[in-house]
Specification:
Shape: globular
Largest sheet: 4 strands, mixed
Number of helices: 9
Number of strands: 4
Low-confidence stretches: none
Number of domains: 2
CATH topology of the largest domain: Glutathione S-transferase Yfyf (Class Pi), Chain A, domain 2
Mean pLDDT: 95
């Protein structure tokens, strides 16, 4: 069976991406959670990850690290199910996924992942505001191009692009981002996803175990 090593569900945006794709592809896997910034993490991570970071996917003796590399591997295992079938659409999906993977540093720095929390008020600087606007534009453009084909970014099937933007969905939920109507439509659909809500429930359990209440408005 596949094994996915992740960090805290409350905090680890990188771990969320392959976890979501595994759930949507219906691939069984064992979840191994190592709490970030703890002695346990430092003691155990080298057993699983050559980079000493999460996430890492273990398939027998093979280790695949980095969230996008893991998603690509999972897509290959399922006959390309992580990407759109059409070549041009697939190129667009890969482009926005790569942009998410390497970009939006200002937004990430200002709005860290707090998966189980709502109503946090953290003002954004101009660079982070521009990041939010760019993501709004990406989601709106995808919805416009795929109108009538399905609720996800590239049609009726959840894909790698959706997994790459899942942490942003949770950030926008936590910090209550202002979005245009088309982007809000995608956000609302993503927030109704039972798999994403399973992740949020796991983050709440982590906070309960630590004796820390989640912030809510």
């Amino acid at each position: 069976m596949l094994r996915l090593v992740i960090g805290d569900k409350q905090l680890s945006s990188w771990s969320l991406r392959p976890w979501m794709l595994l759930r949507h592809l219906g691939l069984p896997f064992e979840e191994i959670r190592l709490p970030l910034d703890t002695p346990r993490f430092r003691e155990e991570i080298g057993r699983y990850s050559p980079s000493r970071r999460v996430p890492v996917l273990l398939d027998g003796g093979l280790a695949i690290w980095d969230s996008l590399a893991i998603c690509e591997y999972l897509s290959e295992r399922t006959g390309g199910a992580g990407w759109p079938a059409d070549a041009a659409t697939r190129a667009r999906a890969r482009s926005i996924s790569a942009e998410m993977h390497s970009g939006f540093a200002a937004l990430r720095a200002a709005w860290s992942l707090r998966a189980a929390e709502r109503g946090l008020d953290v003002p954004l600087d101009a660079a982070a505001i521009a990041d939010v606007a760019r993501i709004d534009s990406i989601w709106s453009d995808c919805r416009a191009h795929g109108r009538g084909e399905g609720p996800w970014l590239f049609g009726p099937r959840y894909g790698i692009a959706d997994a790459m933007y899942a942490p942003v969905v949770l950030r926008f939920n936590t910090y209550e981002a202002s979005l245009s109507a088309p982007a809000r439509g995608y956000f609302d659909h993503a927030m109704s996803d039972p798999h994403l809500n399973e992740w949020i429930a796991g983050a709440r359990r982590e906070l309960d175990e630590e004796g820390r209440p989640a912030a809510h408005p």
